[in-house]
Design a protein that fits this description.
The complex is a heterodimer of chains A (250) and B (322). Chain A has 250 residues and is of the alpha/beta class. In chain A, 40% of the residues lie in helices and 24% in strands. Chain A has ten helices and ten strands. Chain A has helices at 41-48, 71-76, 94-104, 111-125, 140-153, 170-185, 197-203, 221-225, 228-235, 240-249, and strands spanning 3-12, 15-25, 30-34, 56-61, 64-65, 79-81, 158-162, 189-193, 206-211, 214-219. In chain A, the strands form two sheets. Chain A has a six-stranded mixed sheet, sandwiched between helices. Chain A has a four-stranded antiparallel sheet with strand order 2-1-4-5, with helices on one face. With 322 residues, chain B is an all-alpha fold. Chain B has one domain (2-320): ABC transporter involved in vitamin B12 uptake, BtuC. Chain B is globular. The two termini of chain B are 15 Å apart. Classes of the chains: A alpha/beta (250), B mainly alpha (322). Chain A binds chain B through residues 49, 51, 70-73, 75-76, 80-81, 83, 87-92, 96, 99-101, 103-106, 108, 110-111, 114, 150, 154, and chain B through 2, 181-183, 186-187, 189-190, 192-194, 196-205, 258.
């Protein structure tokens, strides 16, 4: 198991963001993380990579407990992530952005070797022509790809992808899905939050569904898609209307 | 070292060296005094730039390192009979150590809160020195005139301080270039652009920021020791002038923050402007008002400063403007 999350609980004041979340992620898999908006998916990412310390529970990464580590220490140990809302280093060039990932990620490259790694990952996400531009000149789809490039430049064992497909058009989605598959084939384990159902069902080996901070389903994509609890979480209870009518009549 | 491969860095360093040596050749006391002020401002602004330009932490209390470092060096010279050279070095190291210590506490603050804390530190240092008897309290300390005999008389000592200041300023600019074009500098700029994102990418922000803060305090401590040695006395009002902190900020903003050349350009321009305003009968009491106005205009219209503006306007000059 590359990642073990045991009974993780996170509260923001009175809001229970995560309750007793427990799951495991075997090496080499792509695990999809689903759930309606506000279900706690990004919070779970933030707890795993150390942005928030959980109130309870343990997180083990490659056999080492990383609960409560600061994010930079988690990054050094080989866990990289992208952000749902892109966070480019605007005044730096695209290449320098990727170099930050290479310099301070798992392999802690020197500036010269980081430049080589940066060029490699930029080619992989298709940003080679933009390498010398200032990052603020990119459009959103390009910035999303840069997020991915930066995370890859860290040469992580585990990659957390937070909605990398959101806002992309169908062609771009197909390209990105291909890229993600190739990353997995290179031996990187992936945990991804995604709302584009078809894509996530296609690419994931397993899927987790989070609702109000509670894990409500886990399994192969097809099984989970037909799970009544999952349908209810997304669409509401299909029998609710009848139930209410019956109560009124009764 | 990547900075050594940047033509822009070389131009800045050599330009400063040429200008500084020209003053020695001319051997005119008035020119030297002017050059002393220019170099002092250039060193102070460049060191502030490490924190403000590269790391993105606006520091209103940079002068505290000039004051306390200077006090420490001057104390060693006047009360313990130290030679100038080790005293300058210890003055710088004391300031850097203080910054390292303070930084681990106040660098948890960000943005405006950090800026406010730095003002507080400057005022606290002034109050402390005012009441600290070994440093002479409110009256300060002075060196016995005979102390200059060791360096070949007072006139010779003035030239010596000038030469040392030139060396320190050039070293500060070399440091600035080396930081900018290093892995460390890349981490600092990551922090400047988005600290949280940089931390997620693995930049150990607390360590990096503290190191940058300590590095930025080194030059002011050394320059402070030289300045007070040259003056022959030191007192709290002279050592912790908040308005000097603000003037340094204007210099960095004017020249272009985050560049090697910018602070030097800003220091020279601002000093000339200040010199004119101070001597002109019409404006002499208003020079700080002009500094404020200049800062306002820069922030509004050329937030990247002269160097940034030139780089954007003439892309071909990019390689020459570090």
């Amino acid at each position: 198991m590359i990642l073990q999350v045991q009974n993780v609980t996170k509260r923001f004041g009175g809001l229970q963001a995560l309750t007793d979340v427990t799951f495991e992620l075997p090496e080499g898999q792509i695990l999809g993380l689903l759930g309606p908006n506000g279900a706690g998916k990004t919070t779970l990412f933030n707890v795993i990579n150390g942005v928030y310390a959980p109130e309870g529970g343990r997180i083990t990464f490659r056999g080492k407990e990383i609960t409560g580590w600061p994010p930079y220490r988690v990054a050094h140990s080989g866990l990289a992530r992208t952000h749902q809302v892109v966070r480019p280093l605007n005044e730096l060039t695209v290449r320098e952005n990727a170099m930050v990932g290479a310099c301070f990620g798992r392999e802690r490259h020197s500036l010269a070797s980081a430049a080589v790694v940066a060029d490699d990952v930029l080619a992989r996400v298709g940003l080679t022509e933009r390498a010398r531009q200032i990052t603020s000149s990119l459009n959103v789809a390009q910035k999303k790809r840069l997020e991915l490039a930066r995370a890859l430049a860290a040469r992580p064992y585990l990659l957390l992808l937070d909605e990398v497909l959101a806002g992309l058009n169908p062609t771009e989605i197909a390209l990105m899905v291909e890229t993600i598959r190739r990353i997995r084939d290179d031996g990187v384990t992936i945990l991804m939050i995604e709302h584009v159902m078809q894509a996530v069902m296609n690419v994931s080996d397993r899927v987790l569904v989070l609702d109000y901070g509670i894990l409500i389903a886990e399994g192969r994509p097809q099984e989970v898609a037909n799970d009544p609890k999952v349908v209810e979480a997304y669409l509401g209870d299909p029998k609710l209307a009848q139930k209410l009518l019956a109560e009124e009549a009764g | 070292m990547n900075a050594w491969r940047q033509p822009g860095c070389w131009l800045t360093w050599l330009g400063l060296l040429a200008g500084g040596l020209a003053v020695v050749v001319v051997r005119d006391n008035t020119v030297r005094e002017l050059a002393f002020t220019l170099l002092m401002f250039a060193a102070l602004a460049s060191s502030l730039n490490i924190m403000m330009g590269y790391t993105g932490y606006v520091n209103f209390g940079h002068i505290v390192f000039f004051g306390l470092g200077g006090y420490t060096g001057f104390y060693l010279i006047s009360q313990h009979g130290w030679s100038l050279y080790p005293a300058v070095l210890v003055g710088g190291l004391a300031a850097a150590a203080l910054a390292g210590f303070l930084g681990s506490a106040i660098l948890r603050l960000r943005g405006a809160y950090f800026a406010l804390a730095t003002i507080g530190i400057n005022e606290a240092a002034r109050a402390f020195v005012n009441n600290f008897t070994p440093f002479g309290g409110p009256t300060g300390m002075f060196v016995n005139f005979s102390a200059y005999a060791e360096y070949g008389g007072a006139a010779q000592a003035l030239w010596l301080t000038y030469a040392l200041l030139l060396a320190i300023t050039i070293l500060t600019l070399i440091l600035s270039g080396m930081v900018k074009y290093s892995r460390f500098g890349l981490g600092l700029m990551g922090i400047r652009e988005d600290e949280d994102a940089a931390v997620v990418m693995g930049v150990s922000a607390p360590r990096f920021k503290t190191a940058a803060y300590a590095l930025s305090a080194l030059a002011p401590g050394m320059v402070g020791t030289l300045y007070f040695f040259k003056n022959g006395n030191v007192e709290p009002g002279d050592a912790f002038r908040l308005n000097m902190s603000i003037e340094m900020l204007v210099m960095v903003m004017l020249g272009g923050q985050g560049t090697v050349l910018g602070p030097v350009l800003g220091a020279v321009t601002y000093e000339r402007l200040r010199g004119y305003l101070l001597t002109s009968p019409l404006f002499k009491n208003l020079h700080l008002a002009f500094a404020g106005l200049a800062l306002l205009l820069i922030v509004l219209f050329v937030p990247t400063g002269v160097v940034g503006w030139l780089r954007a306007r003439f892309p071909r000059l990019r390689r020459l403007l570090a």
